[in-house]
């Protein structure tokens, strides 16, 4: 009996380790493929270079770094308030019947393939931007709008869970002290759910920065630093996806190096998220 | 039963509270079954009775927390100082400031001790720091907590012990300067020493506030209450001075409950 337990424990441990080893392999592989070219060009020249011209041996990814951040930032500005207010309405104010209709509807958004978002963006948002603000319409703003919608279900459902985890007694205690429902949400429920909400926002951010297909279809993919929201943009992810098909040699390695930068950025974001969440708990 | 020098504070007139079923096949629960009673000013009314006799529902009806349940139906009326609290003109927020409530399990908000007490006054619109400090100090003193916490007002309130948390909740209610303070089994989660401290506080508070104390502990009702009421199945069986209820109850059921034959 005890012998059998030991085996089960061992097998479960192996399975758990295989999941982690996948992460380790991915990390190892992209660094293995990408690091040589970073050594060759120099890290600083690689991330601060303005020119990306693989045929001429120029590999500078600053426009794409800036592009990725701009697109993500725009998506957060549009998506986070919308998603949070959605979660607050669902958790605090909606009747059970409304909630049972709205919550699955928002979750369906997460199941729509990203190419469909890209398609809608191309057919609806890009022409709208072109007609309203001029330019081609393929732009940072278009990407941000589409990504803002794409991150909505992630942020809404995780913050909804965080809000629902706050004990009902907090709300009643606050109401019994003469707070209105909105004051209760603002001063008691939201602060208590802060760490969960921060985690939700960071996960949404990770999704926005990593999204590729929808962005390729809407971004315009020009190799410039976008100065206005209506300029075309190329992100780190779309750079990899667009060129991987035909890249060889240094070019191919430079794409892996782009992956390294993306990887590091996302790792930093996650660590930041954990740090903020822990700080909120310690308080 | 009504002594000459006290006046009616809360008047409950034929109050019915029903929890309607969510599904058709479930039965409706009647929590309060045609309750009529008067609660006098500056008395401690202790309400005793077995579980599910409607004691807590009554408290939650008086500050209208019952409305948080979607499937609750209320009939009858409650008058606070001769004015109906179910009048559409009544501001629920104002009502809840006048009728404070302390729950069975201390509801400490995840803030500092100071912020917990200042929460209510701030919502009322008091923002001046000196004024808030004064309110916090006097409320904590009224709840006999000041000496224990005066050096750590800005530390998290969740770090206090259970008994201290409950006294913090009492201080928080006092900070609102209510007319009535309702206690819903305030010592059910506490040790005997903390219980003693809270009972002492109740005696002190009586001079300024009308107090309704719901308790499962009949001895506590006998110790603390000036008036007592016995509830059973959503009905008021008997109400009178504590001395009378505990020494010569009129109803057989009251006697049975107090002497521990059921419940």
Protein traits:
heterodimer, A: 283 residues, mainly alpha, two-stranded antiparallel sheet, 80% helix, B: 263 residues, Rossmann fold, 10 helices, globular
How would you describe what is shown here?
The complex is a heterodimer of chains A (283) and B (263). Chain A has a two-stranded antiparallel sheet with strand order 1-2. Chain A contains 13 helices and two strands; from the N terminus they run H-H-E-E-H-H-H-H-H-H-H-H-H-H-H. Chain A has a single domain, classed as MetI-like fold, CATH 1.10.3720.10. In chain A, strand 1 and strand 2 form a beta hairpin. Chain A is mainly α and 283 residues long. Chain B has a single domain, classed as Rossmann fold. In chain B, the strands form two sheets. In chain B, strands 6-7-8-3-9-10 form a six-stranded mixed β-sheet, with helices on both faces. Chain B has a four-stranded antiparallel β-sheet with strand order 2-1-4-5, with helices on one face. In chain B, helix 3 crosses helix 4, helix 3 packs parallel to helix 6 and helix 4 packs across helix 6. In chain B, 43% of the residues are buried. The N terminus of chain B is likely disordered. The chains are: A mainly alpha (283), B alpha/beta (263). Chains A and B meet through helix 8 and helix 9 of A and helix 2, helix 3 and helix 6 of B.
Give the CATH topology of chain A: MetI-like fold
Order of helices and strands of chain B: EEEHEEHEHHHHEHEHEEHH
Structural class of chain A: mainly alpha
Strand content of chain A: under 5%
In which order are the strands of the major sheet of chain A placed? 1-2
Count of DSSP-assigned helices of chain A? 13
Q: Any idea of the CATH class of chain A? A: Mainly Alpha
Mean pLDDT of chain A, to the nearest integer, reads 90
| CATH superfamily (homologous) name of chain A | MetI-like
Could you give a short account of the major beta sheet of chain A?
2 strands, antiparallel
* Beta-strand residue percentage of chain B: 25-35%
Unreliable segments of 5+ consecutive residues of chain A: none
Work out the helicity level of chain B: 25-40%
**What is the alpha-carbon Rg of chain A in Å?**
22 Å
Characterize the quaternary organization of these chains.
heterodimer
The CA-CA distance between the termini of chain A, in Å, is 46 Å
What characteristic shape of chain A results from the CA principal axes?
globular
